[in-house]
Design a protein that fits this description.
This protein has about 260 residues and is α+β, with helices and mostly antiparallel strands. It has two domains: about 70 residues, Photosynthetic Reaction Center, Chain H, domain 1 (Irregular), CATH 4.10.540; about 140 residues, Photosynthetic Reaction Center, subunit H, domain 2 (Photosynthetic Reaction Center, Chain H, domain 2), CATH 3.90.50.10. Helix content is about 20%, strand content about 20%. It has four helices and 13 strands. Strands 7, 8, 9, 10, 11, 12 and 13 form a seven-stranded mixed β-sheet that branches. It has a two-stranded antiparallel sheet with strand order 1-2. The radius of gyration is 26 Å and the shape is extended. The protein starts with a strand and ends with a helix. The model has no long low-confidence stretch (mean pLDDT about 85).
Amino acid sequence: MNYYLVGNTDLAELALWAFFLFFIGLIIYLRREDRREGYPLESDVTGRLENPGWLFRPDDKTFVLSNGRGVVHAPGKRVFEAPNPKTRRMSPYEGAPIEPTGNPLIDGVGPAAWAERAHAPDIMLDGSPKIVPLDKSHGFWIARQDRNPIGMPVFGCDNVMAGVVSNVWVDQMERVIRYIEVRLMGDAGGAGRTVTAPMAMCQVSSRRGTVKVDAIRADQFAAAPALASDSQITFNEEERVIGYFGGGYLYSKRSRIEPFL
């Protein structure tokens, strides 16, 4: 049986060309789709935005959010996540690291950076906020085997008292404490103000009856991001809180910034 179609072109060659064309189309499709978030790129030197060309420029897609939260268009209009002029490049070449020139914990640089996420809380299946204060949760309490951190003094990484735990925020789906609420007092600054600290960065000592936040100093609690509501925390607020305290592992002390050796 003869499988030649035209001249020296056979079915195997057509199948090979079909695979090549499919693979090229797949690459173009994937390169278009991965530009829906974080693009277009910005040149480190000139500040100009890249022009991917018509072939790799994705069309807007509309995503309908659940629980009546509206719609999102991607890629949509470019939104700068943390526009802040208090930064500078350490060297005049493309790809050079950026260092803060103001308060490094709030300049949105390095480990203290955050993403401009939605100003809405994470929710459960019934649409109610997932992370809430303990007294506003649905039947949650501190286990009798554990010591209740509410009322314990809170110390910074400099072993100076910053305030007292006034409440804890629980994740009602994961059944864990996500944040502690600290009422500031004493000489640390911001007395009477309430801030929220990530539980993952807290060391609770049942024997001493204290809580230590090893991320920042006691005086740095005063500038920590505040929540707009006392009953819920939004995605955006979570980003800023974790960015502030997480940045403290590098920026809270001069000794942490300098090389170890």
